[in-house]
Amino acid sequence: MSMEENNRLGDLLKYEADKNYCREVMTVASGQNLKMGAVVGIKSATDEIKIVSFSDEETDGSDSAFGVLLEDVDATSAAKKTLVIARDAILASDYVVFPADSTADQKKKITKDLEKRGIVIRKSA
């Protein structure tokens, strides 16, 4: 019998300056089921900013990487609050979840967007 263990926060998050500074409580827009480590962008609604899966094909804010989810979030039926690493952290590259169809150039753009926010992706040790 084999067991599969889920990823843990310590697998993804290798360093953060201070959790009260680096993390943001945000709302995941409904209709999404995202995994811990997913790169997200922000989308402005009329009354609230919501995070969505990164997509460089859109021009609604999701085309610029804002942060990375710190937990799995199933918001398929309704929007849900979650924690996002938004600044000044080091993440393990093996646990960052880029969009499934990302090219090498798109991953470089995402990485640069995150670096502008102080989020560095490093090869896991």
Give a written overview of the molecule.
By secondary structure, the protein is α+β, with helices and mostly antiparallel strands. It has a single domain, classed as Virus Head Decoration Protein, Chain: A (Beta Barrel). The protein is built from 3 helices and 10 strands. The strands form 3 sheets. A 5-stranded mixed beta barrel has the order 2-5-4-6-8. A 3-stranded mixed sheet has the order 1-9-10. Strands 3-7 form a two-stranded antiparallel ribbon. β9, α3 and β10 form a beta-alpha-beta unit. The chain is globular. The model has no long low-confidence stretch (mean pLDDT 86).
**Overall spatial form:** globular
CATH architecture identity: Beta Barrel
Class computed from helices, strands and strand pairing: alpha+beta
Specify the biggest β-sheet.
Answer: 5 strands, mixed, barrel
Low-confidence stretches: none
- Overall pLDDT metric: 86
User: Would you report the number of β strands?
Assistant: 10
| Contiguous helical run count | 3
The proportion of residues forming helix, as a percent range, comes to 10-25%
Please give the radius of gyration in angstroms: 14 Å
Task: Output the CATH topology.
Answer: Virus Head Decoration Protein, Chain: A
Could you give me the name of the CATH homologous superfamily? Head decoration protein D
Strand order of the largest sheet: 2-5-4-6-8
Task: Write the element-wise H/E pattern from the N-terminal end onward.
Answer: HEHEEEEEEEEHE
Number of domains: 1
Q: Whole-Å distance between the termini?
A: 29 Å
Strand content: 35-45%
What's the CATH class, please?
A: Mainly Beta
